[in-house]
């Protein structure tokens, strides 16, 4: 399925017209066209690629999956690859959707690799800032990038909140270590994925602001700069959160080790105390005469020795914080 729009001198003139009519509108002065295609094949792009002079390598990249976020420049157009992301707040799992964009002087062609990319929200942004539509392809591209980058920012903000909750769990009296380990690994995996798509976008947005591309004029430049600032902040935020998740995991392991050492000290201390009556009663159980043998005084002496030494060890261990 395809979606189309025609702007004339900054005013929306037509939409959802046949793709075959694009060639009729391109020669018109002040005409700007948007074409959206979902999961097309090379044959689907063949007709429009001839009309717009799209490079063969760019068309191949547009239909292939798992391309790196990038901006390639050709003689007649530029080719952009980007990813939109969505975070499942319940599981902390991040999913991405790939998008390819052909940028010409009078047309913007978006190629979605799946229907998960909410192109309708991009259209709503265009309609909400229609006063900028007179800036042509630069206006359309900004709305698209703004939607993508806002998705990065929302995802990293949500990840930050989940990591804060994970921090609170570290020092909780009762911790489900398996659940905490699962959540920390899921969050770290999501941060790695987010970093992989956000970092290249800094170079992409920065390159789009170059004067020779003629996309960000004096009016649109502050808007592109705002998008770049959001990408930069999302990138730095992602880096800091990756380090924070690692620190949380290391802290959890350290606390577990300290608790294990405390338990071992307590067990060892009680074992030492229990060893005292065992040793004394074992000694008095010898089949040889000893002071107090077969006398009541021998029982009281052995009992006093057991209680005295055990209490002494207990006080000593408590003073050294072993119990």
Automatic annotation (TrEMBL):
Membrane-spanning segments: 267-285, 297-317
Protein's UniProt name: Magnesium transporter CorA family protein
Family: Belongs to the CorA metal ion transporter (MIT) (TC 1.A.35) family.
Main subcellular location: membrane
GO molecular function annotation: cobalt ion binding; cobalt ion transmembrane transporter activity; magnesium ion binding; magnesium ion transmembrane transporter activity
Cellular component aspect of the GO annotation: plasma membrane
Subcellular location: Cell membrane
Taxonomic superkingdom: Bacteria
The species this protein was found in: Amycolatopsis acidicola
UniProt membrane topology term: Multi-pass membrane protein
Pfam families from the UniProt entry: CorA
InterPro entries tied to this protein: CorA_cytoplasmic_dom (IPR045861), CorA_TM1_TM2 (IPR045863), MgTranspt_CorA/ZnTranspt_ZntB (IPR002523)
Keywords linked to the UniProt accession: Cell membrane, Membrane, Transmembrane, Transmembrane helix, Transport
CDD domains linked to this entry: TmCorA-like (cd12822)
């Amino acid at each position: 399925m395809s979606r189309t729009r025609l702007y004339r001198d900054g005013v929306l003139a037509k939409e959802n017209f046949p793709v075959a009519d694009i060639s009729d509108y391109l020669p018109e002065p002040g005409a700007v066209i948007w074409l959206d295609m979902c999961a097309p094949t090379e044959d689907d792009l063949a007709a429009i690629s001839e009309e717009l002079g799209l490079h063969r390598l760019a068309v191949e990249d547009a239909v292939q999956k798992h391309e790196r976020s990038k901006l390639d420049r050709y003689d007649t157009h530029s080719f952009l690859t980007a990813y939109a992301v969505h975070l499942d707040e319940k599981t902390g799992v991040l999913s991405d959707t790939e998008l390819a964009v052909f940028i010409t002087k009078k047309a913007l062609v978006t190629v979605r690799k799946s229907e998960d990319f909410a192109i309708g929200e991009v259209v709503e942004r265009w309609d909400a800032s229609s006063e900028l539509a007179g800036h042509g392809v630069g206006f359309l591209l900004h709305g698209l990038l703004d939607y993508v980058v806002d998705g990065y920012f929302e995802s990293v903000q949500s990840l930050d909140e989940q990591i804060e909750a994970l921090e609170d769990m570290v020092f909780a009296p009762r911790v489900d270590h398996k659940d905490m380990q699962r959540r920390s690994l899921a969050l770290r995996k999501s941060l790695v994925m987010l970093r992989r798509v956000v970092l290249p976008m800094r170079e992409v947005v920065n390159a789009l602001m170059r004067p020779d591309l003629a996309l960000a004029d004096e009016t649109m430049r502050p808007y592109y700069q705002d998008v770049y600032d959001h990408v930069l902040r999302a990138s730095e935020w992602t880096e800091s959160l990756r380090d924070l998740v690692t620190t949380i995991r290391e802290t959890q392991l350290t606390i577990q080790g300290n608790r294990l050492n405390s338990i071992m000290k307590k067990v060892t201390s009680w074992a030492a105390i229990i060893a005292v009556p065992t040793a004394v009663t074992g000694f008095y159980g010898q089949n040889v005469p000893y002071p107090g043998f077969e006398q009541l005084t021998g029982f009281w002496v052995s009992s006093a020795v057991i209680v005295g030494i055990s209490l002494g060890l207990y006080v000593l261990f408590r003073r050294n914080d072993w119990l």
